[in-house]
Amino acid sequence: MKEYEEKYKQIFRYLSLGMSQNEISKLLSTSRNTIRKIKAVTDSIRLSWEDASKMTNEEFVHTIFPKNKNWYYVKKKCQLNRNFFYLTSTFEKC
C-alpha cells in the first residue's frame, strides 16, 4: 500500500497544478479511473493541496479513503451535492 499512498498524493498534486487526467495517467502510469476517483473524493471533501501537502502519504490516503466510512452515505451525499450545484447554477442563469 505504501507505493500507492505516494502515487495518490502525487496524482492530487498534479490535479491541483491543473494537469489533465490524460497527462497524469501517462506520467505516473496510472489508470484514468484511479485519477477520476481521487479527483471526485478530494472535490467532495473540498481538500486543498495546501492542506494535503502538510499530511504524510498515509494520512492523505486515510483522509480520502477512510477505513470505517459508510460509503452508501458518502455516495448519497455526493449525489445531493451534485443536484444542489445543478439547481443553484441553473437558478443563477435565470
Automatic annotation (TrEMBL):
It comes from the Bacteria. This is Uncharacterized protein.
